[in-house]
């Protein structure tokens, strides 16, 4: 994952409503109206949030076979997994640095 992708991920999730949408979609696919109701957002505001999440790749949408007007939104786990891998690398680096510092202090 590039630094720009990591930056975009955190930028998109800086908004509390979008974080709530991601949490709701973690429970399963939902329609925009359901998400708007659950978050207390207006339909136009939810549309904007979903567009941003779609553009960032955090959310995917699909048409319902019986009704082409209905779109279901679902969480796309790939960006979350990629950011988790990046965070694991950061954590490993700091764990190594702190271990080296501890050894230095203990040997002094």
Structure explained in plain terms:
Helices cover 69% and strands 16% of the residues. α3 crosses α4. The chain starts with a helix and ends with a helix. Strands 1-3-2 form a three-stranded antiparallel sheet. It is built from five helices and three strands; from the N terminus they run ααβααββα.
Question: Helical residue percent?
Answer: 55-70%
Please identify the top-level CATH class of the domain at 3-76: Mainly Alpha
Number of helices: 5
Q: How much of the polypeptide forms β-strand, as a percent range?
A: 15-25%
Give the termini separation. Answer: 39 Å
Reported for the largest beta sheet, the result is:
3 strands, antiparallel
**Order of H and E elements:** HHEHHEEH
Number of strands: 3
Q: Which descriptors would you attach to this protein?
A:
single chain; 108 residues; alpha+beta; Arc Repressor Mutant, subunit A; 3-stranded antiparallel sheet; 5 helices; elongated; transcription; HTH_MetalResp_TranReg
What order do the helices and strands come in, and which of them pair?
Blueprint: H1 3-12, H2 16-26, E1 30-31, H3 32-39, H4 43-56, E2 59-64, E3 67-75, H5 77-107
Antiparallel strand pairs: 1-3, 2-3
Pfam family, one: HTH_5
Domain HTH arsR-type: 1-98
Keywords: DNA-binding, Transcription, Transcription regulation
Concise account of the structure shown:
By secondary structure, the chain is of the alpha+beta class. The chain has five helices and three strands.
């Amino acid at each position: 994952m590039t630094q720009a992708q990591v930056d975009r991920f955190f930028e998109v999730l800086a908004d509390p409503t979008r974080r709530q949408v991601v949490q709701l979609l973690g429970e399963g696919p939902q329609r925009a109206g359901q998400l708007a109701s659950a978050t207390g957002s207006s339909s136009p505001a939810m549309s904007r949030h979903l567009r941003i999440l779609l553009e960032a790749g955090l959310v995917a949408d699909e048409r319902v076979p019986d009704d082409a007007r209905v779109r279901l939104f679902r969480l796309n786990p790939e960006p979350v997994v990629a950011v988790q891998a990046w965070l694991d690398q950061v954590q490993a680096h700091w764990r190594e640095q702190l271990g080296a510092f501890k050894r230095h202090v203990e040997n002094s």
